[in-house]
Amino acid sequence: MKEVRVEASRSYSVYVQPGLIDSAGEYISSLIKGDTAVIVSDDNVSRLYGQRLRLSLEKSGFRVLEYVFPHGEKSKCMDVYIRLLEFLLENRLTRSDVIVALGGGVVGDLAGFAAATFQRGMGLIQIPTTLLAMVDSSVGGKTAVNLEHGKNQVGSFYQPYGVICDPETLDTLPEEEFLCGCAEVIKYAVLGSREFFDSLKGAGVRQNLEGVITACVEMKRDIVASDEFDTGRRMLLNLGHTVGHAVEACSGFTVLHGQAVAIGMAVISRAANRRGLLPDSDLHEILDILERFGLPTQTKYPALDLYRETLADKKSGSTHITLVVPRKIGSCELMKLEREEVLGWIEDGIKP
Ligand code: NAD
Ligand code: GLY
């Protein structure tokens, strides 16, 4: 089994091993004092893995409750959050009990925010079941729900007590969702490691799932340890996300997040190259790996529409926007630009 230790306001381990879901109860009982575990999940994931997790928790002596909501981003909202809090209260949960978030980033973000806020904070274990959640959202403590007109507008930093990653659960993940996770994996490689980038080109992701997940979690661990509350270096994790979020918004959220991040990485890499900041060979390698993973690198939306959506994004400041700019594979830089300058970057980046 692989173990990555995350040092933050609460320190914890991320365990990665195929089949781990069946011994989750053992790990959780070693971390949590309370006697009740609430599995929070969506309908898809609960149907596939809820019973196995319940058995494992019961075997370790927990009273087990389940709270299941419909899958999809729409459920990451105040209504579902409030109903979950009411459920916790009705069932007399206390701060020493635990929420076990079983699912992708939607489940992890919503259940994490409920754990952070119920009675000012209760136990939280993340069991991510999408590649995106394994390499990104389950680690680092960002929790949130959406408001009607803004994503992740209500949330908190709340580190889990542990993360249990069972790569076998990815066997049932739709291919399109798996590829979205691959976009985030490629993001880590472009951000932080030429060696990792080369290994992805060679062996891909599926062939070495445990190694790939562990490598990404280690990179995220290092970034979170140096900037847990996202005031500086952690912004590097937004590589591809500024334009990516704009593409998602222009498409009315029909382009999936990972696909949009791939487009965003391609756009920012082309623009950096045209400004002499990223060598030709590195640009071609970035575009090539995205295409090899079946991810898009072009967008049909005009620069002005993308720019308008970029300005509307919650991460945009009132006068400046911080772009994550690749300088070579394995190294990126934060560049604080005047808002108006960003239009030129987008124009340059969407040209083939
Ligand atoms: P998701 O949670 O919506 O899962 C995608 C789909 O896959 C859902 O339909 C789900 O039911 C299904 N699914 C999940 N696991 C499955 C499995 N093993 N087998 C079959 N189906 C499965 O989406 P996601 O991409 O995991 O997460 C996206 C969310 O994560 C967004 O809300 C985003 O804002 C958030 N996010 C948070 C952070 C963070 O740091 N907290 C980071 C990145 C993204
Ligand atoms: N997913 C971005 C972050 O954790 O900061």
Word description of this protein:
It catalyses: 7-phospho-2-dehydro-3-deoxy-D-arabino-heptonate = 3-dehydroquinate + phosphate. Pathway: Metabolic intermediate biosynthesis; chorismate biosynthesis; chorismate from D-erythrose 4-phosphate and phosphoenolpyruvate: step 2/7. Residues 67-178 form the 3-dehydroquinate synthase N-terminal domain. Its EC number is 4.2.3.4. There is one protein chain. This protein has helices at 24-31, 43-59, 78-90, 105-117, 131-137, 175-192, 194-203, 209-226, 241-250, 257-274, 280-292, 303-312, 341-350, and strands spanning 2-6, 12-16, 36-42, 63-69, 98-103, 123-128, 142-147, 150-157, 162-165, 320-328, 331-338. By secondary structure, it is α/β, with parallel strands linked by helices. The strands form three sheets. It has a seven-stranded mixed β-sheet with strand order 1-2-9-6-5-3-4, with helices on both faces. A two-stranded antiparallel ribbon has the order 7-8. α9 packs across α10 (257-274) and α12 (303-312) packs across α13. It is globular and about 60 Å long. The structure holds nicotinamide-adenine-dinucleotide (NAD) and glycine. The site of glycine has 6 residues, from loops.
Q: Which descriptors apply to this entry?
A:
352 residues, alpha/beta, two-stranded antiparallel ribbon, 13 helices, 20% strand, globular, binds nicotinamide-adenine-dinucleotide, binds glycine
